[in-house]
Task: structure prediction
Amino acid sequence: MNDTSVNPFNITKAVDFSDQEINDYWVDIPSGAGFSDMAKPTSPMPMLILGGKGSGKTHLMRYFSYPLQKIRYGNDVVGGIQRDRYIGIYLRCGGLNSARFRNKGQSEELWADVFAYYMELWLAQLALGTIISAVGGTPELEDREPDVVATLASVIHCGDRAAPTTLSDLNSLLRELQKELDGAVNNSAITRTLPVHIAVTRGDLIFGIPRVIEENLPSLRDTLFLYLIDEFENLSETQQKYVNTLLRERQSPCSFKIGSRMYGVRTYSTYSADEENKEGSEFEILRLDSILRGNEHYPEFAKRLIARRLAESNRVPSAAGTLDPWRLRWKTASKSLLNRDSRQQRRHTFWTSTVVESVPISKPSASTLSKP
Result:
């Protein structure tokens, strides 16, 4: 963001940020290894990331996703993934999407199977797209791609369709299957039927793709494939039960981070003999609100968030050592702006001035503000 006529605090939800903005506005908490130490992206143990609205769940989860890794590491994305030891696959559970898989004259049991199939196709496409972006065109993939695709295609009932020969072909096949499923689901309220042919057994691709890639591509051999499933609260109890089952039946080299509102988890039950997942056994919990409130460095972290947003909008110097000098500069600059700018600009100027004046800032360092 570099347009000073735009209020830098207009956008309050991380879901509305672009990948670049998520990266630009990222500020780590100045304690220990920061948020990586809390969220443990390299741990095979699944985690629930719980917090209230605006607690930073989405920003945190998107920061660990592959699109952000790609921004951070540029042309050396594979090397960056190797150093991170994980690759993040992000999925947001929108309420409008999940609500399609209910009622319409169909049984709950039928919808449970259809939803599981839809999630299998969706997550598989995200995983394949991530792999294609990270290692597509490399000699390593070109050498092993036929075997990788043949192994993965063998678990899909292709029917009369031609067998895929590349990862892109395989992804197109999954997209076509999902498109057919979308049509059946969307029209079921009118037709009162659900003519769905389930072409993949649940888990075969979600767990199979990472396993086959690890076995065939040495560059990703020690990489954890981290599924980041956000806005879990938008899923019904039956749908959450399916995701809980994925956590319980997790296979290496996969793991899960599930983002949800504090009271958005409706059930811990699974389809594994209706057993419940237990904290400390099948998953651990990161209670983001309480951890941030109890962290002695939180005031400094909050000030850095404000500083970063102002710096990215060119309202304060990005290399300044503290925000204290910015107040003095702002008093002078704001008088000039108020004399010549439009009414909207003056309003934005006033609110930025209010923020700068009201926050008693004594830190952050220049190195921290300039570092992603």
Observations:
- Residues 89 and 126 are 7 Å apart (CA to CA).
